[in-house]
Amino acid sequence: MNIVKPESIAVFCLTPGGVRLARRLKTHLPLTCFTSDKLLEPGFLPFNGSFGDTMREAFKQYSALVVVGAIGLTVRVIAPLVNDKMTDPAVVVIDERGQHVISLLSGHVGGANTLTRYLAGILGADPVITTATDVNEMAALDTLATQLDAEMQDFRHAVKVVNQMLVSSQKVGLWWDTPLLAERDRCDTRGFIPVDSLDALPQLDALVCITLRDSLPLPAEQLAALPVYKLVPRRVVAGIGCRRATSLQTLVELLQQQMAENHFDIMALRAIGSVTIKKDEPALHQLAQCWRVPFELFSVGELSRHEQRFPASDFVRQTVGVGSVSQPVAWLMSDGKLVGNTLRQQGVTITLGVSH
């Protein structure tokens, strides 16, 4: 998912008024501002060729693009580039007098609606947002997924169905698994019907369950009778130690086994980690790519500060420089919130933790 980050916002100024407005915005956000050679001033970068050329280049490099200028011109430039609302950058247009801030592209997942409201607040302008859920003052499934950094099977279809239900006044329930309840207050859930227990469901047209579990505690007859969508926040981290030249297949199978034994959905995986000596271990990099998660590395010094918490191996100490790898790595990645037992098979150790 594409989430707007302040440090990756590009602003395009086409007129002197646009440059003045960008100056105001730069006092609130770390922006990269582009303008023409004749309007160039300190703190601004020149267009690389033309406005269109620079915008097309930035479309692939920035999380959000803000154009201070005409919406028609912006549409003509980006039209050939628009591909997928799950990955396209946010695009926002502001008139040069700063009266209207318009969310043009990737309102939910890309964050254009949120950015529009923020910029409008800075400028004292009117935010113009046209997505149906926002117009009806309701939450959206894709916005909720972004807020939670969550995954879902067949996400695109689920978003289309659930958001349509919400704006059509159908009853969509929302259930939070107990370990995730603390995150409820920071999320926009307007329009969803709170469900406290899966044992006694109210009358619903669909149900969204926020959980890390691999299977839901719902009777089979309810699963068959009601559309149920499982939204899985990425919270599980895996500390991994392995012998040199361990195969990718072995790591995949053992990680899946460890996740299943702890009843975690594989979509809940947020990151894997190991000791720095493993920075060039091909299978670990491939594992991270396979599950589209970061591969984090920790020095022997970092791990040594926590190894007394765990059983140590003389062989591992002689080989790596610290008596344990997977457990202190998972400890650091999860702030000490380890889950289950450490898997030890085929020269591989895997320890899971849950970060919030």
Please characterize this protein's 3D structure.
Its EC number is 3.7.1.12. With 356 residues, the protein is α/β, with parallel strands linked by helices. It has three domains: 122 residues, Rossmann fold (3-Layer(aba) Sandwich); 93 residues, no CATH class; 119 residues, Nucleotidyltransferase, domain 5, CATH 3.30.420. Helices cover 32% and strands 24% of the residues. A seven-stranded mixed β-sheet has the order 3-2-1-4-5-6-7, with helices on both faces.
List the main descriptive attributes of the protein structure presented here:
24% strand; single chain; hydrolase; alpha/beta; 356 residues; seven-stranded mixed sheet; Rossmann fold; CobE/GbiG_C_sf; 13 helices; Nucleotidyltransferase, domain 5; disordered N terminus; GbiG_N_sf
Termini distance? Answer: 19 Å
Q: List the strand order in the largest sheet.
A: 3-2-1-4-5-6-7
- Strand count, sense and closure of the main sheet? 7 strands, mixed
Low-confidence stretches: 1-6
Structural class: alpha/beta
What share of the residues lie within helices?
Answer: 25-40%
Top-tier CATH class of the largest domain: Alpha Beta
Secondary structure blueprint with pairings:
Elements: E1 9-13, H1 16-26, E2 32-35, E3 44-46, H2 51-59, E4 64-68, H3 71-78, E5 90-94, E6 100-105, H4 112-123, E7 126-128, H5 132-135, H6 141-148, E8 150-151, H7 155-167, E9 172-176, E10 193-195, E11 206-210, H8 220-225, E12 228-233, E13 236-242, H9 248-261, E14 269-275, H10 282-291, E15 295-298, H11 300-304, H12 314-320, H13 326-333, E16 338-345, E17 348-354
